[in-house]
Amino acid sequence: VQLQASGGGLVQEGGSLKLSCTAFGFTFEDYAIGWFRQAPGKEREFVGGINWSGGRTYYEDSAKGRFTISRDNAKNTVYLQMNGLKPEDTAVYYCAGRRGLGGSSQRDFEIWGQGTLVTVSS
User: Fold this and answer.
1) Tens of pLDDT along 13-67?
2) Do the beta carbons of residue 39 and residue 97 sit within 8 Å?
3) How far apart are CA 7 and CA 119, in angstroms?
4) What secondary structure letter does DSSP report for 66?
5) What confidence score (pLDDT) does residue 100 get?
6) Do the beta carbons of residue 2 and residue 47 sit within 8 Å?
């Protein structure tokens, strides 16, 4: 049972990246997926999430209008499209899964991926 995040890298300010989160070993469509990030020296924070069907997404204020979360249950994958990246978006990005309704509290998420590093240069 695991989630695998990928797609991180180095990008210039104003650029875009698309992260992927692929599930292995569990019934993916039973789970809402959240994206979190942890910047150097800071606590991990919620970025946004998507419900089991993909019909509902929700975002932290810093991500609204720039980030888009989508999912393809046939591929057991959730995506985080990030546009207009800023240096303050530099962080390790994690995906996490929880049964039932989505939310933003880390303690509610049961399954965590290993993280992928995003670095935005100015």
Assistant:
1) 999 999 999 999 999 999 999 999 999 999 999 999 999 999 999 999 999 999 9
2) no
3) 11
4) T
5) 80
6) no
For residues 122 and 119, give the distance between their C-alpha atoms in angstroms, rounded to a whole number: 10
Of 74, 76, 122, 119, nearest to 95 (Cα)?
A: 76
Which DSSP helix (H) or strand (E) runs through 94? Answer: strand 91-99
> What residues does 50 pair with on adjacent strands?
33, 57
Token pair for residue 75? 């591929």
First-to-final CA distance of the chain: 38
3-state secondary structure of 61: coil
**DSSP string covering 4-60:** EEE--EEEETT--EEEEEEEESS-GGGEEEEEEEE-TTS--EEEEEE-TTSS-EEE-
Length of the chain in terms of residues written: 122
